[in-house]
Amino acid sequence: MNILAIGDVVGSIGCRFLRLHLPQLKKLKGIDMVIANGENSADGNGLTPVSAQFLFDSGVDVITTGNHSFRRRESYELYDSCESLLRPANFPPSAPGKGFCVVDMGRIQVGVINLMGVVYMESLESPFDAADRILASEMPKITLIDFHAEATGEKRSFGYYLDGRVSAVFGTHTHVQTADDCVLPDGTGYISDLGMTGPIHSVLGVKPEIVIEKMRTKMPVRFDLSDGDCEMDCALFHIDEKTGKTTSVERIQIQ
Fold it and tell me: How far is 184 from 247, CA to CA, in rounded Å?
């Protein structure tokens, strides 16, 4: 089974670039399922029902999110009604939506878990404890985790902690694709960060001059998105359906 995980989709420009290239990539690589992080898919940050539906209509099967999950209030009801739209499972239970889902693909089921790191991030339930809690329930043999986190050390620790217990752990949030894609010793596919789907000449999708101003002056600024050429960063996990283990990881960047 081939499962594609796509890095943080940034704004409508990133959504359009994904729609332009995803169908062809699915055919070329024989992709069975697509997971994309959509927490920045709306212009101005966050996710809206419109941006989520755009991603689903473009061929995404499951949307994961992160620290910007609830930036847009108009999305709250959608989190509760759409099983394929996830928020981090270690948010308090009172938060809208769920942090994991099971996708029935006919011949097989696939689990997707969304968790958030706590190093330099929000003070949430330990992602290690939350993962243990969810995996203690009946999750499918093939289960992947989007770990939305800042610190590489936390991400790699989390990957090794779950090695052999899930099919893959892929990081999101930093918008910069890492070159450490691998299969861990006990068969879990891993990459510290998938990267970003959005403008190439940007700082995490935002116009560089705006971020430079923020860094130099420490004054509030409006984070307007860059335009121009885009890229789609992702990773393809080749998974053995009998064992649930990853056999190989293919890092992909489309420009």
Answer: 10
Q: What is the pTM of this model?
A: 0.96
Active site residue 201: no
Q: Which of 21, 68, 173, 175 is catalytic?
A: 68
| Each residue's pLDDT tens digit, 104-145 | 999 899 999 999 999 999 999 999 999 999 999 889 999 999
Contact 101, 131 (CB under 8 A): no
Q: Tell me the C-alpha to C-alpha distance, in Å, between residue 54 and each of 12, 38, 78, 110, 176.
A: 9, 10, 14, 22, 23
